[in-house]
User: Fold these one by one.
Assistant:
Number 1:
Amino acid sequence: MPETSVAHFYDELADDYHLIYADWDASIRRQGDALDGLMGQDNATVLDCSCGIGTQAIGLALHGHRVTGTDLSARAAARAVREAAHRNVTVPTGVADMRRLPFPDGRFDTVVCADNSLPHLLTEQDVHAALAEMRRVLRPAGLLLLSTRPYDDLLRDRPASASPQVHQSADGGERTVTFQLWHWHEDGEHYDMEHFQLLPTGGEWRVKVRRTAYWALGRDRLAGLVTDAGFADPAWRMPHETGFFQPLLMARAGK
């Protein structure tokens, strides 16, 4: 396949990322509400180690948390700063690999790794390295909030595509359509994803295609990797319980 680096994928997507959502501002508020409710702490120091353009980071900052964001994509991280300022909150960001976080030990109360970001890491060694770094930068008993796609279901069915999503402009005019095609590897766990966006241009459709890869980690397997990295009491919470759009794994940093 052509260039599939994660940083390249999200650099290319950064300007259009909000078009994935029917209403991005509503998603910011809804996801921020859900994560804040799970944290159970006011004014927490939070690291969003896969912040993208700021969906979760801004949502938490709007609740008064002190949020720092990092991401592999320089363009996405820079946009998160601008979008936060536009909403009258401050979210400093930096470019960093979650396997090598540029922070001292015990810096944060909570680490967020949401929106199916961890499964971009394609080997157990890399996943362990990232989780160990999240554990290192958390205070003792600090909280990990990690979300993925519902991979137990997806591993059973191995779908070839995801449902299309439609974004409509605020004035009710132009619509953008986003959909994905998935190409599963022979191992049945890894898959390549082609991400399509159809954007209206002068009465016709312009198509953008971007490509990346994922590792479909089932819930039990990921919970085991979280435990191996030094976390205690991992527990999955489902969207109907939390109001968050993906299954969430919660765990505490071991002492």
Note: The CA atoms of residues 140 and 255 lie 5 Å apart.
Number 2:
Amino acid sequence: MLATNNKIVIFDTTMRDGELTPGVKMNLQEKIGIAQLLEQMGVDAIEVGYPGRYEKDFEEIFEISKVIKTSTICGLASSDREEIITVAQALAPAAKARIHTYTNVNLSNQSRQSEAEVLAVIKDSISLARNYCDDVEWSAFDATRSELDFLCKSIEVAINSGATTISIPDSLGLMLPEQFAQFLENIFNKVIHINDAIVSVHCHDDLGMAVENSLTALTCGVRQIECAINGLGARKGNADLEKIVQGVLNDGEFQIEIDTSLISIASELVAQITGIEKEK
């Protein structure tokens, strides 16, 4: 699913990252209801879960894959071979499937793994995912705290290995909009084949900047935004889907195919399921 011109891809992670919100758990029927509403809204990609880490997510991805036809169904995996195979199996019934795999690119946090070893892991994991699925997203986990030259090498390897979407997450929500824009511009300038993939951002709200950072990223060439209904997610949450959609529409330069009349219904449904009201 390559973005064309100014089409913005909306990637919803309410059911995957949203379940990392303290106290939040969703069952299969609740997730099916959310997924069907997201599909009606016109959300491009729906990330349902992480079956290599959470056993219940396998059935949820498998069953939702049977009922959703127009949105892409996505599951998360690390670079681990078994996790990637598990996601592929869970996505087997999907009309449109995406394997989303990630690798930690902040080597200061790694236990003596060399650059060459990490690059080999990226290549092998994406190549494996492409054996099962044409649509593969790769996330550079902890990108904003990694060394820029190595990050750019990692992205180049990911694209050359077949990743169709490259996600640059602010995993700990550490950056301010001006910093984030400069960071992204450096990546776009340094990675030779950056235009061969859709570039995505996944911003956390630890400093209250997830929405602003995500919208700022569009001016740098980013064409997918990862977000969640009511801003659910780990710690302070993710970029809020409603605010992202409104921001894109207000900008006027980009195309977005979301039925905004259904957003408040989705917000109320998720609030009812989770017991967490949307912040005004």
Note: Strands lie at 9-12, 45-49, 72-77, 97-104, 136-141, 165-170, 198-203, 224-227.
Number 3:
Amino acid sequence: MKKVIYCLLILLIITILTSCSNERDKPVEIMISAAVSLTDALNEVKENYETTNQNVQLTFNLGSSGKLANQIDRGAPVDMFLSASSKDMDTIAAKGLIDESTKVEFASNSLVLITHRDNSTTINSFEQIQPEKIAHFSIGEPNSVPVGRYTKQVFERLGIWDPLQSKLVMGSDARQVLTYVEMGNVDFGVVYSSDTVITDKVKVLAEADDEWHESITYPGAIINDSLHKKEAQAFLDYLTSEEGKAVLKKYGFK
């Protein structure tokens, strides 16, 4: 009987040690809420980073920066926020939700006017937009989508915001606006310059003057409640390294 009990204890110890070993070998998951305009660049960054950092698994929660900021405010289990808007980062920073010492601007972007590749329009500047000649124009929803807020600022500056109201088709993020234009559902759209790198179904007609809208910068920061700050900081350092910057540049970011 004693022999049986001894054997069972040995098996129990082995099971516990094996379980602990497996837990140690399991990659640390870093949950990153990121602006959807970063999708393609981050997918390549993820592949590169995880190849040389096999103890880390990067998981992305993609969406408009405004919605992501609201999720973080409501307690979403996030380690890092990569925003397409300083305003949305500042919103959660004011509530003490980020580690201010980790905040860094890692990219910037520009605003472009696009149309379907088969559209024969001769427009080559934002100033040439004529609301009365347009049936449908897609932009991001200004209250929650940074690209929409920037677009509204441009249209107000040019005096065409009010005349375009009945023509606007709102997108939940820049990629949805891009899709509307790709499918020919709208005449024109405004997206980030980086969005146009991933498609051959649209053509860029013009780039907005930087003075017409607030600066389009991408800040990143670690969330105060993160349980993996060390690993998150290592990834943020990589994103701002020369290797990380090269990938961002490849996908149209400045």
Note: The chain has two domains: 26-108+216-250, 111-212.
